[in-house]
Fold this protein.
Amino acid sequence: MSLIMISAMYENGGNTTHRILDGHPELHVYPFESQPGTKYVNDHLNSLFPLKYRWPVFPLGVSAADAYEMIIDEEGKVRSKTPYVSKFRTADFQMTDKDRKKVFVSICGKKPLTTEILIDAFYRATFMTWKNLNQTGKEKAYVGYSPIIGVDAEKIVRDFGKKGFVLHIIRNPWSAYADTKKRPVPLSIHHYMTGWIMCQQYMAMYQEKFPKNCFIVRYEDILADRKAAFAPLFKAVGLKHSATMDYPSWNSEKLTEVYPWGTIRTPTEAVNINTAKELSKEEIEEIYLRTKLYVDQFGYGNIYKKIK
C-alpha cells in the first residue's frame, strides 16, 4: 500500500487537509498526527523542529518491539494509553496500544527491519486494531500527517520509492502567524518565520527533484477548489475525487469544526483573510520583510495588498 505523508508548517492547514482527506473511500487516514520521529534523529535541523515531527531513524539491529516503542507518536499513544489526559478524549477511538504493538511485531516477523517495513507495519497495525474504524475495503494508501516532515521528503522517497508521496501544504504567512499567536506559548515572528521559510525551501527543492512523489498545494487553493488542488497528487497515486472532501471529518464522521485536530476551526476563504487582518501593521511588514521571496514565488502578493 502507498504512503502519503502530509507536511505543513504549524497553522498552515496541515490538520485541515488531513481531516478533509479523512472520509475518502480509497484512503486509510491516521486518526491524529502520526509523529513518526525517534530520538535517534540527529542533524542540523534539530534545534528548529521537534524530533517527533521528523522522519524516523532506527539503530542497527533493533528489534521490532523496541522499534515500536521508539516511534514517538505522541498523540496516538497518549489517546490509547491515557485517554483521560488526551485532548481527543471525547473522540470515540477504540484501540489499545498493547494490541497494536502485538500486531506490529507480528507483521514485522523475522524480516530485515528497514525503515519502510517498520513504518508500513506501524500504519497497518493501527488500522488492523482500530476496532470501530469506518472503512470501505477500497483503501489503497495510508495517509499520515506530521508537521514539517517535508524537510525529510528525500528520505521518504528513498525508503518507499514509487509508493512514497509527500503532500506539502503552504498557507500565507500572515494568517498562519496570526493563528500561531493564539497558542498558549506562541513562537516569535523570527522563530516562526525561520521555520516557515525552511519548510518552503526544502519542499520547493524536493518538488523539483522528485516531481512524481512531492507536491506543494496552497491552503488557499484547497479552500477555493479542492478537486483541482489535489488533482496532481491523486493522479500520481491513482485516486478519484470524492464528495467526502467537501467537509472535514474524523473516522468518516462530519466535524462541525476542525478543532481540536488543528488551530484552524473554520476552513473558509473569508476566515483565512480575516485572520491575517488580526495582525498589527508592524507585524504584517515584518513578516513580509522576512518572507518576501516566497510571498512572490507562491503568489501571495495579492493577500499582502489586501491586509497592509
